[in-house]
Structure formats: structure tokens, C-alpha cells
Design goal:
6-stranded parallel β-sheet, binds 6-O-phosphono-beta-D-glucopyranose, binds magnesium ion, globular, alpha/beta, single chain, 45% helix, 6 strands
Amino acid sequence: MNSDHVEAVVFDLDGVITDTAHYHYLAWGKIAEELDIPFDPSVNENLKGVSRQESLRVILDHGGKEDKFSKSEMEKLASQKNEYYKEMIQELTPEDVLPGIMELITEIKNENIPLGVASASKNAPTVLRALEMDHLFEYCADASRMKRSKPDPEIFLTVCEALEARPEHSIGIEDARVGIEAIKKAGMYAVGVGKNLEEADLTWESTEHLSWTSIKNSFLTKNSMARRG
Ligand code: BG6
Ligand code: MG
């Protein structure tokens, strides 16, 4: 296999392909309000890329209520959040794909590079169908089968394996700090979208500026430098 070649591109979903990160924020906001816990975008930053149960723990912790609920009460709260979230995403249509994403995917597909999705969300298949994008990805990880959450690399390694791609020759795209950490731990090249993602190999302020040519060139330069030692 030619080592000067991108073997796979693996996308995060929420906050990269579509702005569902905002709906997760709104749905958790309702739960926080019901529990009388202060909630704002800075708390939400710690929830990006984090599983549903883990997000609830972060919110309860923030409100000093980490010991106040039994396991079954916590399950109820998490499933109530999911009900709010599912109601919000019912309105999703292909119009909700973030700017620049379809163009980027088209360019990657033109080079016959396989695409995958590594999302912590159990709602990922529903969201991809609503955006009419499910056919564009060769593989979407099943979040419910992952043993460890991001920043563990498990989900990115699982997608690379399914796509028969070597992680060091693959690219991951993320909007969450834990996601960038997971990509790096997997040994992949990390592209960050948004702020405070210094650990990424390359960052863009927003999806509309993503350029496949720049991503690919930067990835190839890094890989050839690594080969030369
Ligand atoms: C991630 C989001 O993609 O999925 C998190 O960034 C969210 O905010 C997580 O908590 C789990 O999503 P879901 O849909 O399974 O509750
Ligand atoms: Mg995300």
C-alpha cells in the first residue's frame, strides 16, 4: 500500500457534521433547570463528546449534587434528557448539514477514500438518516457497543479497523477536546473544528473554512516528515 495516501477519514457527528451539539446543550439545560443546577456554555464545553451518563455526572458534580440520586433516578434523568433531545432532532433535514461539510465529503469521495463516523451518540444513525447522509459513510460506529468513552481511542480505532485503514494513515475530524485527544491516542492525524483545540494537528474556526486540499497536504507533509525521522 502506498504510504502517501489517506486510507480513511473519520468524522465526529455532533458539532462537526451538524449542529446537534446545540440541541444536546438545550436538552441538558432543561434537566439542569429542573434540578436547580446552574448551566451555561462553559459547563457544556465539558459535555462535548462525552456519553449521556457521563454528561449527567458532570452536571450533577457541577451542581454539588453528585450523591443525591440513586442509580435508577440517574437513569431516569438521562432518559428524560434523551426524550427532550429526540423531540428537538425531529425537525432535522438535509438543510441542517453544516456549511462546507457536503463539499468536503464530495472531494474525499472523489478520491475513493472510505469515510466513517465515530460519534458517542446512540442517536447517530437517526441523525444521519434525517440529514439523508447515511449512504455516504461506509461505517458508523455503534456507540452502545463501546466499552470506553472518548478520550479513549477505542471508537476511532474501531472505525479504522472496520474501514481496513491503518490509524497512522487516517484522519479524524472533531469539535471536542476529548475527541481530539482520542484521535491522537489512536495515532491518527487530528483536525479540529472550533476553539480551544490546541492539541489538534490542524484547526479551523468553523466547518465552512474546511479545505480538503489543505488537510490532505498538511497530513502528507507530517507523515513524510515522520518517515524521514
Ligand atoms: C456526543 C455529544 O456526540 O454524543 C455529547 O457530543 C452527547 O454531547 C453524546 O452526550 C451522547 O449522545 P446521546 O445521543 O447518546 O445521548
Ligand atoms: Mg462533537
